[in-house]
Each structure stands twice: as C-alpha cells, then as structure tokens.
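Ops channel
N.P.: pipeline sanity check, posting one input/output pair.
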C-alpha cells in the first residue's frame, strides 16, 4: 500500500477551501448525502460559516515583522506584502499598527487553583512534588472542587524547577577542623546466626573526609552520646560545628521559627564545647558527605562478613576503618583521607583530657515498688527501704553507682542490651530468712531444735500473768 502525503495547506488556501465548500449548490450537496446513506454527514451542513474577523491572526516572528515594515517603507501595498510573505492581509495590517515587535503572550486565564497557588508552592516539596497527594489534601482540607489534571499541570513546573536546582547545586567545602557531619544508618546482619538490625553511627570530617563508624542496637540518647565520645577519642579531637538532620534525639521541634534542641543533647554539646548545626527541612542532601559515608560502610564493609555478636561487629568495623577506609583514594578529593587528616588533626579541639559527659551525668530515678530502678532499658535493685525515694545514678567505668543523699547504696555492673535484670539478694526484705527457708526446705534433714544453749537464756514467767492480761479491769467491768 502506497501512502501519499500532501503538502501543508497555507492559511490562504484554507480560506479559499472554506469559501468553495460554502458555495456548493444545496441540491448537489443533498444529492451527495443521499447517495452515501442516511448516516452520512453532508459537507455543507457540517461546515460552520466563519468570517475573516473570527480567525486569529498568526503571530509573526521578529524577522517577518521587520520584513513587513521594510516592504511597506518601499511602497508595497498590503496585498503585495501578504502575497510575498504568504501571510494574511489582516496580519500585515496588525503588524503595521505596532511600533515595535513583541513576542506572543498567552492571556492569563483564571483558574480554580489561583487561591491555592501559595499553599501548593510551599507544600509541594514536603510531599516530594506528588500531584496526587496535593490534590487529595486540597479536596479534604481546603475545599478544592477542581480535577486532578489541573493540580498535575500546576505541579509540573515546580517539579522541573526543583530538578534543575538539584542538578546545579554546588558542593559546600569546609576548612580543617571546621565541620563534621553525623548520621545514622541501619542494616540487618547476622549476630550469632540471629538476624539483627544494627544501627551504625557515622561521623565524617568535612575537610579530610576521614570517617568514624560504630554499631549499636538502637538510636537512643545514650547510644548517640556514647557514639560521639567514641568518635572524639578516635580522632583525638572534635570540630567546631557538627551537622545533623532533625533527629528527635537532637532537636524536638521549632519555637517561633527557631529549632528547639533536646535538653540533654544541648547539655552534651555545651559540655564538649561544639555548636550543633541543623539541615534545612527536607534538605538532607546538605549533609551529603556523611550520607556517602553511611552508604560506603553498608556496601564495602558488611557484605560477606560473619559476626558473632555486636562486640565482634565493632571490632571488625574498627579494623576495616584503619586498614581500608582511611587508606582508599577518595572519589571527591582524589586523596587518601588519612593523608588529608594530617592537615586537619592540628585544627581539631583536643578532647583527650576532657571528662566523659556520660560518666559525669547524674540521672535521677524513683525507686519502684519492686525496689528496682530503670537505667537505659535495664533494671537494677536497691535496698527495699528506699521504695518511693529518689536516688541518683552515675556511671563510673563499667559500673552504675547509685546514691541516696550522697551515700552509695548500690553498685551494679552495666548490663548490655535491654530488658536485663540485676538483683542483689541483700537488697530485698527478709532476704536472710528466705534464704534459710529455701536451704532447709531442699534438705531431707529435720529443722534444728532450738535449745537454751542455742537460743540463749529464756525467762520463766508465772502463768497467772497471762490470766491477768486476758481479764478486764474493774473499771472496764463497770462500763
């Protein structure tokens, strides 16, 4: 089958074609319709008469506009200019009325979204430019009655603008000792053949790109603070600014537009002397250095390794950092992190002689009815006489030291993980008697007989004394 393509029809030819169709005799057109059947559409009846005033004049480019004015200046008529440039005479007239060329601009039309434009611009980045979510929220929260297509068209330029901005963003570099970036990553590994979610804390120095990583079983406040102190010890110092996303252990929200730091973390930052910095909301790429570090640990360290427990995980991770991560050629700096760290180390604030915040931090705990206090997810016993009282807990090395009014009342080894219980028998009520009953109940020998020698001297009393105790006095009898 051969397909023939006809050349495009000009505006002038289209006008002539319309005029020729309109001039067809009515009888001829009706005869043609009858020949084609009752469902055929007649050309004359299907054609809508239109005048040249109803047709929108095509828009001329700047070169055509200048050509029209040049020919008119040479004395050519409007008809001659129209034939020479293959445009309509009305277009030539409109062009000659203009003193300067102006590009075509579509007339702005009102839309149901006009009153929601500002809200869409603010909300779109928060929902990742999802037109579907925006349309649902507009209908549910703002009484919008328009269609989804309208919202999709309004979101498209915003999404494009954000994509262009992401492609053209500039990498932010810092000087030695100026900034470090911190973040968590999570990965499931086998610890003793048991699948376990390990939370990896990563701190990356901004200048040298040298990193520190350590695994934990959670991302609680004690884990975060312990990870920082371990990182400071690893680097031998700390940067002036530490950058975070808006994790709950760092920031609780905003007050009058300003972030409100977690009180414990604010005390920790003041104790060590660094300034916390926060990423802008929904701009996690601001801390791209540490995000790359998290991915590097997951992809390069974890695959193919076997771990007995969390301690073994961290031991292998520390060896990998020293033998692999520090010695690789970094893709951005094209230098080894350990080599650039030689220039950054002198700029770090020294931390070796600084006391530990975790060990210096005093925790107040109220003794429960079971004479236990909860510390970091585990429970430890104290003397039962302190039930309902407030005690102070301080960590000293691997021990929890518990004091009441300045006096040490209990010491326990720090339990690993969560849900552990450490109870000392001497803290419970009647511990000695319970131990005696348990010891003799498990033996077949009869319980010992108490004698005068074993129990001491026993006073012998007259039985009349007990009769007098049980009898009422004369005054009680009268009553």
């Amino acid at each position: 089958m051969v397909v023939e393509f006809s050349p495009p029809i000009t505006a002038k030819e289209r006008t002539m074609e319309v005029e020729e169709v309109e001039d067809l005799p009515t009888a001829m057109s009706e005869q043609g319709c009858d020949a084609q059947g009752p469902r055929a559409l007649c050309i004359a009846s299907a054609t809508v008469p239109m005048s040249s005033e109803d047709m929108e004049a095509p828009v001329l480019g700047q070169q055509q506009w200048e050509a029209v004015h040049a020919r008119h200046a040479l004395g050519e008529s409007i008809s001659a200019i129209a034939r020479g440039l293959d445009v309509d005479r009305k277009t030539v007239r409109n062009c000659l009325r203009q003193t300067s060329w102006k590009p075509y601009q579509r007339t702005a039309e009102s839309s149901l979204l006009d009153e929601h434009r500002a809200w869409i611009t603010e909300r779109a980045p928060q929902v990742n430019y999802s037109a579907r979510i925006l349309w649902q929220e507009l209908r549910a929260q703002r009484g919008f009655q328009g269609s989804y297509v309208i919202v999709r068209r309004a979101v498209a330029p915003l999404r494009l603008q954000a994509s262009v901005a992401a492609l053209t963003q500039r990498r932010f570099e810092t000087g030695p000792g100026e900034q470090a970036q911190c973040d968590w990553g999570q990965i499931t590994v086998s610890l003793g053949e048991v699948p376990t979610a390990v939370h990896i804390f990563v701190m990356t120095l901004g200048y040298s790109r040298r990193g520190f990583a350590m695994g934990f079983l959670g991302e609680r406040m004690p884990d975060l603070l312990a990870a920082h102190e371990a990182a400071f010890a690893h680097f031998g110092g700390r940067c002036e600014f530490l950058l975070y996303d808006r994790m709950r252990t760092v920031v609780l929200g905003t007050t009058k537009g300003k972030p409100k730091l977690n009180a414990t973390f604010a005390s920790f930052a003041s104790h060590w002397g660094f300034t916390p910095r926060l990423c802008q909301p929904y701009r996690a790429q601001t801390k791209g250095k540490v995000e790359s570090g998290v991915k590097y640990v997951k992809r390069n360290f974890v695959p193919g390794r076997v771990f007995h427990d969390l301690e073994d995980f961290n031991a292998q991770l520390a060896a990998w950092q020293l033998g692999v991560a520090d010695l690789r050629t970094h893709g951005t700096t094209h230098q080894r992190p350990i080599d650039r760290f030689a220039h950054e180390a002198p700029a770090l604030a020294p931390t070796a002689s600084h006391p530990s915040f975790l060990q210096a931090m005093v925790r107040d705990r109220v003794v429960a009815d079971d004479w236990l206090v909860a510390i970091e997810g585990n429970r430890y016993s104290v003397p039962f006489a302190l039930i309902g009282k407030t005690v102070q807990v301080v960590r000293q090395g691997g021990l929890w030291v518990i004091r009441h009014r300045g006096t040490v009342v209990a010491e326990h080894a720090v339990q690993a993980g969560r849900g552990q219980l450490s109870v000392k028998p001497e803290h419970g009520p009647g511990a000695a008697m319970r131990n005696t009953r348990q010891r003799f109940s498990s033996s077949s020998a009869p319980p010992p007989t108490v004698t005068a020698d074993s129990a001491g001297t026993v006073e012998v009393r007259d039985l009349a004394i007990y009769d007098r105790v049980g009898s009422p006095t004369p005054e009680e009898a009268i009553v």
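N.P.: looks fine end to end. The CA atoms of residues 82 and 457 lie 140 Å apart.
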